[in-house]
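Exam revision sheet. Question 4 asks you to relate a sequence to its structure. Input first:
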Amino acid sequence: MAQTAAQICSLARQIAKCPNYLTQSGQLLNVILEELAQDYDFEVARKTATGTFNTTTVSGPGNQYIVGTGPNELPSDFLRAERNEIIWYLQGVRYVLINFDQAQFDMQVQTAGFNSYPVNYYVDMADTPASPPNFYVWPPASGQYPWTCRYFPQKADIATPETSATSPWFPNQMYLITRLAGE
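Answer key, structure tokens:
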């Protein structure tokens, strides 16, 4: 049976012999869970998002991108895409998009009327968390083809974990207890 956040905090405080650090244990548990989500890719946390290429918008961040590049909205909890897992489909054939950084993307030809099948993408995280992240494709999509993105999310903090009946998303509870006691 999964331990709750409150139970993990309590056990860690007992091991560390500091029973009065109630709030601190909860804060540190959230910090540990955030670090795990930021630094490691756990299959248990992976999610999938789907959509179709946006072929109607004509602007991008800091530049005027051409129609067909995006923005293509990702979920608000998007942290990073799994390697080779932003894909799109054309008549049942799966095409893998290759990641660019924004500088590489900005060097590509942006000429009106230039549309094709997308090969590359970059994710714009600049406005996050104020708005959901977007990804842009190059060459610009020549149609509203369906895409799928397998990604790792940024997990939300547990509200007052030191008293919460919620179980943390991370399945290795012994690690959480030991790590929290050490912190």
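Marking note for examiners. The helical segments are 5-16, 22-39, 102-106, 173-182.
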